[in-house]
Design a protein that fits this description.
By secondary structure, the protein is mostly beta strands. About 0% of the residues lie in helices and about 50% in strands. It is globular and about 65 Å long.
């Protein structure tokens, strides 16, 4: 029997919904097994997931996923993600892949070009996340940059195909004097026709505005697309919430 070498396992079955998988299905017979390895500081170093859809014909993977597994199952999908951290225990590699064989000389982890969520993460001197480096195809990269104000609050995000260029701003946030978010936006363009928070937006833009009472409690959220109100959510002192297209979402249904 395999020994538990620092791995924790989670078994999920019976109507568990797989997310993020191209062939995701929900039924009463599938199962997923997730094994997580931690370092001495408690950081996740590896997450090994085994998804089985339909009638399982092979046993779940052993506690140590490096050991041989049972017979193959055509309905089975395996995901293997690796992570790195800096001296401050901040993630520097998210959902990376293993290069070589674990536990052998020369083995290392790197960006996984087959996973759009895989990224190298960089931080500034005070710990703000400054840049993500992600794979773009088989050889290129895409860079996501972040700007902060004097209070270390995120105010803008950018996407670029060059490490030396700021690129195109893809989102941002505006705050009031009390530090509350009053608007957030994304996918804007200088050629857009609708202005919000001093920015112009493209047809694909999404924006949210937030309104508060004198006690700083959120009263309403308005969501716009291409400058047109899509919905409003109202928050009331009795704890109820409504969502609709009128003021405070009062013409809509109550939300649980």
């Amino acid at each position: 029997m395999a020994k538990d070498r620092g791995l924790k396992r989670l078994f999920v079955g019976n109507d568990f919904t797989h997310t993020g998988l191209a062939a995701a299905q929900t039924d009463a017979t599938h199962q997923t097994v997730t094994s997580t390895r931690y370092d001495a500081a408690g950081n996740r170093r590896r997450i090994h997931s085994d998804f089985t859809d339909g009638a399982a014909t092979s046993p779940p993977p052993p506690v140590n996923p490096e050991e041989p597994e049972g017979p193959g199952d055509p309905t089975r999908t395996v995901a293997d993600h690796w992570y790195r951290y800096d001296r401050e225990n901040r993630i520097t590699l998210a959902e990376g892949k293993l290069i070589g064989t674990a536990g052998t000389a020369g083995a290392t982890t790197d960006l996984d070009r087959d996973n759009a969520s895989s990224a190298w993460l960089e931080y500034d001197a005070i710990g703000n996340r400054r840049r993500d480096t992600r794979a773009a195809g088989s050889s290129g990269f895409v860079y996501l940059g972040y700007d902060y104000d004097a209070g270390n609050r995120l105010i803008a995000s950018y996407t670029s195909g060059s490490v030396t260029s700021r690129g195109t701003q893809t989102g941002g946030k505006v705050y009031d004097g009390a530090g509350r978010v009053v608007s957030s936006y994304g996918s804007f363009s200088d050629t857009g026709a609708t202005a919000l928070g001093g920015k112009s937006y493209s047809a694909a833009s999404q924006s949210d505005s937030y309104f508060y009472n004198l006690n700083g409690q959120l009263l309403e959220q308005r969501h716009l697309q291409n400058g047109s109100l899509q919905y409003a959510v109202g928050y009331y002192s009795n704890g109820s919430t409504t969502k609709g297209t009128g003021a405070n979402g009062s013409d809509g249904a109550s939300l649980a």
